[in-house]
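We emphasize that the prediction below concerns an isolated chain of 485 residues; any contacts that depend on oligomerization or on bound cofactors are therefore not represented. The input was used exactly as deposited, without trimming of termini.
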Amino acid sequence: MAVVGRAIASLARRHGGRSLGVAAARTVTTSAVPASAQAANAQPTGEFAGAGFRHGDSHKARAPRRTQGAVEGTKVSLMFRIYDKPGALVDVLTIMANHGISLTRIESKPTKASDKLFDFQVDFEGTPEDPRLEPALKDLRAHTVVADLQEAVNVPWFPTRARDIDEFSAKTLDAGAELEADHPGFKDAEYRERRRMIVKNATTFRHGDTIPRVEYSAQEVETWGLVYSKLREYTDKYAVSAYKEIMPLMEEHCGYAEDNIPQAADISRFLHQATGFTLRPVSGLLSARDFLNALAFRVFFSTQYIRHHSRPLYTPEPDICHELMGHAPMFADPDFASFSHEIGLASLGASDEEIERLATCYWFSVEFGLCMEDGQRKAYGAGLLSSFGELEFACSPDRPAGGRDDFPKYKPWEPEVAAVQEYPITTYQPVYFVAESMQDAKERMRDYCEGLARPFGVRYEPYTSSVSVDRALVRMEPKREELEE
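Result of the prediction step, given as a C-alpha cell string:
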C-alpha cells in the first residue's frame, strides 16, 4: 500500500485540496464564533439515467419512511431588529458575549417597514430551556426594537451521517434484477438469475461493511474485455489528462485489465486513500435526492452487474462498464472529487426544485462534462468516458464522428444555465457544456451552490463522515401520499 500512497500523493500535489462545506447565501457560517459546499455503446442507449439515479422521475417517489426530528446537535434561533446606526450591532453582540452565547450563524436584511431598521437572524449552540436565554433576552429587548426566539426551520429529510445512507440505499425506483421487455437479457433466464444473485449484495450491504467480491464468469469477463479494449483506444484520444494519468494506477493497484473485472472493494479502498470517496453497491436506480445526498458523504452508488453478452457495446442502464470505466477513475482526481462533493452538500435539505436543478447540473458535468486542454475539448463526464461513440461525437473535430455527420452545440460551463437546459436520455446529447478546466468547473459549481436559497449552511466533517448545520432545523419525513406513490 506504500506504493499506492506515493502514487496518490503525487496526484494530490498537482491538484487543489478538498472543500469542506457550502454556506447559504447572504449568510456567515461560523464554527462557534464568539459574538464579539453511458455505458460503452457506439449507438445511443435506451433509458440511460446516469450512475444510479433516474433523472426526470419524481425524487419523492417511493421515499422511505425516515426519522423526523432535529438535526443532531442543538441550535437556537433568535431574531432581533435594530436601528441602522454606528455601534448598534456591536452593542447587541456584546450582550450575547456577556451571557456566554457563541454564534454559529448570522444573517441580516433590511426591514420592509423602514430603511432605517435591520432584522438579524442569529443561531447559536443551546436549547430553548438554556438558563442563559431568559436574562439574555431581557437585556436584548432593552437595546433592540424587538428580540424573540424563532421556530426551527422545516426542511426535507436528509442524512447527517454516512451510516444514515442505510435508511434509503435499498429504496430504489426499480429493482436491478427486474428487466424491461426491450432489455437484451429479458428472455435469458440464466442472466436474470445471475443479476438477482449480484443485486442481493446491495440489499444486504450496510455502512462499514466490506463490499462483497463477485466471482465473475468467463463470459462476463469476455464482455468486459470487449468494452475495455474498445474504450481504451478512444479515451487515450479524448479523455482529460487526469483520467489518462489515473487509469494506469487503477490497472496497477485495482486490477483493471482486459482479462479481469476489478472488484468494487479494491477500487473503493483505492479511492478512499486518494480523495476520501468510497463506492457503495446499489440494487437499482435511486431518486435524484437520495443519490445526490450520498455524494455529500463522498459515497458513490455503483452497480456490480454487467450488461448482456449478446450486445456488449450496448446497455439501456448503468452497469459496471459505465461505473468502473466511466466514473470510478475520475473520483481519484481531487478536483473532480471536490466538484462532486459540492453538489452533494448542496443537495442536503434542498427543495424539490433545487434538487431538480442540481441533478441537471450533475447530468451536464459528472455525466456529460467537457473541459478544455491545450485548446481541445476533452471529456471528464462518465457518460462520455464509457461510450466510445458519443465520446468521439462530443470531442472529435472531424466528421463523421460517433456515427454522425452533424456537430453538437457547445456552451461555456455556467451552472445556472446548465441547471435549466433540457436534454434527451435516449440519444447523443445535442448540447455539451465546456469548462475552462476542472478547477474552473469546480469553482463555478461552488459559487452556484453557495447562491442557492437554502435557509441553512452545512459543514462536512471528514474524520467522522458526518455533517453539521448552522441553525435549528427539523428534517421532515415525506408526506403519506408521497410514501404511497
